[in-house]
Amino acid sequence: MMKFLMSKKIKWLSNLICVVAFGYLRLYKQLTLSLIFPQLRMAALNEAYTGDVHGVRGADYACYREARRAGLRGTFRAFLSSRVQNVDSIVRQADRKLPVSNLRGEVLFNSWTEMYNADGAPFPHPPRIYSFNGKNVLTDLSWPHKAVWHGALLNGERALDTSCDAWHSASKDKVGLAGSLKGPRLLEQARYSCDKRLILLCIEATTELFVQRKRRDADNIRYSYSNGEIMDEEEYHNFLASIQ
Fold first, then answer.
1. Which of 1, 116, 194, 229 could form a disulfide with 156 if both were Cys (CB 3.0 to 4.6 A apart)?
2. Beta bridge partners of 85
3. Which residues does 54 contact at the CB level (< 8 Å), separation at least 6?
4. What is the average pLDDT score of the chain?
């Protein structure tokens, strides 16, 4: 009996080691890809959201928090336009020619700039977008509507009065623009009532290497980027302002 229990325990430990090793291997692969072949990673938050995401600032912080919990060190922001922000301006100017990829390194768009040619960011091929916890948003039931909030016109500029009151409203009487991931373009001009729960995307606002260099020049500000801590919302807001 003792020998049987020991055998079961050894098998369980072996499986656990394999799972942990696979997780570290996947993280190592992601980090290596981002350092050798710079890309802007796009991911979805881990659940569907109404149009009330506590504004762009609240959505930015949700992107940062979930990315950090997933072991990602990038500077992620919400893929949203509002009254004071165009979606095409989210990424730092110097990084806009980089390809946009999913979390597995598969290219979604050839470059950030190429997405905004007034044709609504057409998909070069059917998109595979994953959440920070590894789910495919097109196939997972956590997202009943396969559409993405964005609030932008075809060229990436903000669409006035169609952003769920600057992303503070979950009212069925308000509307926000969204694009279907099953359609031909990301910036599809579909109107959804703000009580609908849709996909909320996050995009890496700048490359990881740039952020690391920027941190070395920012000793006068307490950032928790490299020591494993998670910044609070105010700290992250200030951090984003410093890298633009």
1. 116
2. 82
3. 167, 168
4. 85
Please say whether the beta carbons of 72 and 185 come within 8 A: no
Q: What is the pLDDT of residue 17?
A: 58
How would you list the strands of the sheet with 76-78, edge to edge?
Answer: 76-78, 201-204, 40-44, 100-101, 107-109
- Whether the full predicted model's pTM is greater than 0.70, yes or no, is yes
Asked whether the beta carbons of 95 and 206 are under 8 A apart, the reply is yes
34-73 burial: b if 16+ Cβ within 10 Å, else e = beeebbbbbbbbbebbbbbbebbbebbbbbbbbbbebebe
- What does the pLDDT look like over 13-47, one tens digit per residue? 555 454 444 444 444 444 444 445 689 999 999 99
Whose tokens are 């597995």? That residue is 104
Give the CATH superfamily of 36-243. Mannose-Binding Protein A, subunit A (3.10.100.10)
